[in-house]
Amino acid sequence: MNRRALYAAAIAVAVLVIGAVLTPGLASWPGLRAVLVVASFTGFVAAGQMLVVLVGGIDLSIPWVLNAAAIVLTTTSLGMSQRLPVALALAIGAGLAAGLVNGLGVAWLGVPAVVMTLGMNGVLQGLTLGLSQGLTCDDCGHYAPSPLRDLFAGTVPAALLVWLGIALLVTVLLRLTVFGRRVYATGVNPRAAFLSGVGVKGVTVALYTLSGGFAALAGIMLVGYGGQASLGLGDPYLFESIAAVVVGGVSILGGRGDYVGVVAGSLTLVAVTTVLRAQQVPEHGRLMIYGLVILAILFAYGRERAHD
Amino acid sequence: MRDLQDRLGYLVLIATAVAYFAVYTTSLGRPPGSFDYLAILNTTMPLALVAIGQSLVVLTGGIDLSVGGVVSVCVAVTAATGGAPGWILVVLLLGAAAGLVNGLIVAFGRIAPILTTLATLSIYTGAALWVLPVPGGSIMPEVRAVLSNPNIPTALGWLALAVAGWWVLRRTRFGMRVYAVGSDETSARAVGIPVERVKTAVYALSGLCSALAGVFYVSTTTAGDANAGAPFILTSIASVVVGGVAFTGGRGSAMGAVAGAVALTLVIDVLFFAGIDPLYQSLFQGLFLVVAVLLGTAAALLARRRTT
Description:
The complex is a heterodimer of chains A (308) and B (308).
Chain A: H1 3-22, H2 29-54, H3 62-77, H4 84-107, H5 113-131, H6 146-150, H7 158-176, H8 178-188, H9 190-195, H10 200-226, H11 237-247, H12 259-278, H13 283-301
Helix pairs in contact in A: 1-12, 2-7, 2-10, 2-11, 2-12, 3-4, 3-5, 3-10, 4-5, 4-10, 7-8, 11-12, 12-13
Chain B: H1 2-6, H2 8-28, H3 34-59, H4 67-81, H5 85-107, H6 113-131, H7 141-147, H8 154-169, H9 173-183, H10 185-190, H11 195-221, H12 230-242, H13 254-273, H14 281-307
């Protein structure tokens, strides 16, 4: 594990402790649980964002992949529990398909990642709005099936266990498998990786596909949390996912970073916002402090090496 | 053929303009009149200005996400003060100062451009909300008559001025240095170019361009909104891409970006007159973006094949 991930974890703990002192409610399990649940959504999208950032890419299509998956889920499940498995498969499938197209465009057609994923974001926004008639379609108003909503009930919500599972999965994938070694090799130096036999294009396609899948997962969980799908559901997660990744100590240039750090990064960002809200800081103050916190963290451990 | 990629923006603009002319004429039974051209000019002005600033930054191999925040804060101040000439000067200084801060952090703080401007985006957007908590404000009719007069094409004069500014700038020592830094930073440093100062300057210029865009935005819409700048982040990047400016830096021109901005604005009109449901609008914008870039890549590939 790299040192930056430890810094990220230390900062998350520090922010939570300061928050608990300022806002006593945060020191209780229900308070902490609320922060963890909200942070899990950032954690899901940031998992995908981290994977593409590790190979020096970026995914700007997250907002509408997330939103499209959320609407696919509600319009195919129609609030019925027995239709949930199919709906889940379709929603995740839609995310994976969008990610696959991103990956193919970036790796095989040579379209810059910013352009490809920005274009995909637009395409999915248009398709989602058009096909759902601006979310006025007959099936659009359905609630999430109850098993999905139950993920957020209980002392230890199952949603947090899902996040834990994803964290283990991503960490094992990156640190204990051949695929993971190839990801870091590609991120550090794509040319060297290619020459030593890594299928750089295949790795890239796989990572973008996974990112689409994680964005879809976030959409599904948000529908379960909020009960319904809405338009613009994914908009806050574009920049939030990038912020969580870098606050988590992942190098934006690729090749370095761990999901443990990203989990800490997600917690830090959500904890900052939660504490500021609890302190009744107005929105403009929250935005400015949020930006300053990110900037301070970047100065602490996000700087690039000096030029000789 | 290498020239073809450099002229991508103009080719895309010509193709879009022809499509606009054809679709407009078939739909309304008459060619577009002076009123239509004036409307296009006035609505494109803010984006064209932001795109000029964005292209300068991208030419050095960077990216400026904070344009959204700078436009917002400048729109807020202009609208809140009614845009008296003295205040417009303040707004321009404010924009340049905001950009200067970005530049200093990127160049001397050694934090990646995308991360620096992500953090300052939040700070500047917060400042905009602080100045103008609810949409509103006004612009002096005299100022409006000079900037974006709805009856005579005054904006054309300002656009020509911006074009002339770029034309002079790229021929100065500073202009050459911008391309040098973007093409190969290490070499630029080796031949004694003050890379840090060049970078700082392009971000300051980008801030100034965003400030001008903010003033024109209020002048065209006659009111302000603290979130007015947000759409410009992605559309300015799209303009730069369609305009043939390479994300790797050192290739392209601000004029291409202006052509890209006009093309992107025209596409919306083309879709409208072609009778396409506005809900599907972003689908076609996304496709337009990716296809335009693919055409550029294909042209470059053809060129390489012909020379070898």
